[in-house]
Each structure stands twice: as C-alpha cells, then as structure tokens.
C-alpha cells in the first residue's frame, strides 16, 4: 500500500507517492533504504510528474526538520535527496506563513529543471507533517 505526502500552498501542490522499498529483499544496507516514488506537481499553471527514488534516511530527516519547524525550533526544513530529482526547502516567514521553494529535475539524456516557489502556512504544513510521519513509520530506515 502506498503512502502519499502532499506539500501544498497558494496555487500549488506537490504530491509524493511512496510505493515501497525499491529492493525489498537485499542484505546490502546501501540498497535496502531506497524507496520507489512518483512525484506529481501543479505549480501555478504548470503540471507534470516524474518517477524517482528517495532514501528512507532523507524522508526521516525531512520529517524531523518539519516537526521542529512547526514547533518553532528552526526556521527551515529541507528535503534534499541524494539523487536530486527534487529539492524542496520550506522557510518560515512571519505569523505562521512559509515559503516553499526548490527545483524538480529530470535525469538521463533529456534534461529539464523546474524552479518553483509558492506560499504556504502552518495549516498546510501540519497536514504534510502528519503524512510524512506516517510514511516514515511505514517505511522506516533499515539498519540490518
């Protein structure tokens, strides 16, 4: 069963669907934590989708940062996977508002990049945090 994580705001939505571990049965820990994912996005009038992989470490780190950001302990949370198909930074601005920015990239012989930014707020980010934490629980970092 897939897990869905939505980062949303004014006129934009990034939806990351986690399908499961890319290599469910492997003894190599460097391969064991890769998640097979699909990213859909609508940013203003631009829409698209890409397939990508993200390590469970990256997802867990982003979840922890986002929780701390919502609590007011830090002002920035960042999803920065090793593969760099997506980079997403959330910066708290004033009075519970946030700026979501980053880049979505394709890899391979055809290359494209979409730079994006949109406004969001704590009501959107709380829902993202709930979804992220559920995904981290379902797809934990494998250590053995």
The H/E string reads EEHEEHEEEEH
Write down the overall geometry.
globular
- Quaternary state of the chains: single chain
- How much beta, percentage-wise? over 45%
- Give the second-level CATH assignment, the architecture: Roll
The termini sit apart by 23 Å
Q: pLDDT average, as an integer?
A: 94
Major sheet summary line:
4 strands, antiparallel
Structural class per helix/strand content?
alpha+beta
Specify the number of helices. 3
Provide the spatial order of strands within the biggest beta sheet.
Answer: 1-2-3-4
Please provide the count of β strands.
8
Give your account of this protein's structure.
This protein is α+β, with helices and mostly antiparallel strands and 144 residues long. The protein has a single domain, classed as Transcriptional Coactivator Pc4, Chain A (Transcriptional Co-activator pc4, Chain A, Roll). 26% of the residues lie in helices and 46% in strands. It has 3 helices and 8 strands. The strands form 2 sheets. The chain has a 4-stranded antiparallel sheet with strand order 1-2-3-4. The chain has a 4-stranded antiparallel sheet with strand order 5-6-7-8. A hairpin with a 2-residue loop joins strand 3 (34-43) and strand 4 (46-55). Helix 2 (56-71) runs antiparallel to helix 3 (122-138). The relative contact order is 0.22. The mean pLDDT is 94.
């Amino acid at each position: 069963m897939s897990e869905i994580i939505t980062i949303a705001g004014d006129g934009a939505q990034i939806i990351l669907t986690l399908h499961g571990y890319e290599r469910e049965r492997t003894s190599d820990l460097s391969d064991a934590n890769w998640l097979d994912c699909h990213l859909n996005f609508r940013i203003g009038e631009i829409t698209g989708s890409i397939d990508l992989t993200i390590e469970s470490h990256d997802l867990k780190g982003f979840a922890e940062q986002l929780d701390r950001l919502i609590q007011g302990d830090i002002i920035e949370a960042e999803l920065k996977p090793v593969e760099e198909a997506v980079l997403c930074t959330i910066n708290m601005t004033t009075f519970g508002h946030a700026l979501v920015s980053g880049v979505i990239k394709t890899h391979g012989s055809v290359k494209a990049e979409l730079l994006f930014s949109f406004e969001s707020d704590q009501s959107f980010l709380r829902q993202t945090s709930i979804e992220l934490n559920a995904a981290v629980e379902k797809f934990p970092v494998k250590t053995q």
